[in-house]
Amino acid sequence: MTDPIFLSKSAFAAHIGKAPSYITWLRKNNRLVLSADEKLVNVDATVALIRETADPTKAAVAARHQEARVQRDVTSQLSPLVESTPSMAAPQPAIGPAGKQPDFQKARAHREYYLAQLAEAEFHKVQGSQVELEAVKTGAFNAGRLLRDQLLGMPPQLAPELAAMTDPWEIERRLTAAIRASLEDAERMSSADLVHALNNKS
User: Fold this and answer.
1) Record's superkingdom (predicted)?
2) Using CA atoms in the order 48, 52, 56, 58, what is the torsion angle rounded to 10 degrees?
C-alpha cells in the first residue's frame, strides 16, 4: 500500500483548481481529511471524501452543463451544410421489437458518431483537403460552358482571315495559335470562377 500524499492547504487548492476559500469551506463542512497535526491535507482521502459527499443533483447538473459546452464547441465549428464522404458510412441502428424500450446508450453513441464525422469533415474542409461538392459542380459547369463559348466563337472571328490564306501551313499555324489562346483564356477564367464559387460557399 502506498503512503498517503500530503499537501499544504494552499497547495491542495491549487492541485484541484480551487480557491483557498473553498478549502476553508470544506473544512467547516467536515469534508477535509487532515494530517495528525491538522496542517496538511491528505490528498487522496480528501478527494475521495469530496466525491462521496457530493450532492448527486448538483453533479448531474454539472454533467449536463459540461455536455452542453462540449456540444456547443463542436457544432459551432460546423458549416450548415457539410458534404459527406464515402468513409462516413455507418451501419443503421437496429430497430427493436415493438413495445421495447429504446436503448439510449446506443442512440447516444449513434448520435456522437455522426457528430464526430461532421467535425472531421469540417476539419478537412478547413485544411483544404475537402471542398463542398456543390461548389465544385458549379465551377465545373461554368468552366465547361466557358470553353464551349470560346470555341464556338472562333469560326466567326477566324473565317475572314483564313479565307484569304492559301498556304496550308499558315492556316494550321493560325488555327493552332487561336485554339491555344482560347484554351489558356478558358483555363484562367475557369480557375478564377472555381475559386469564387468555393469562397462563396465557405
Assistant:
1) Bacteria
2) -50
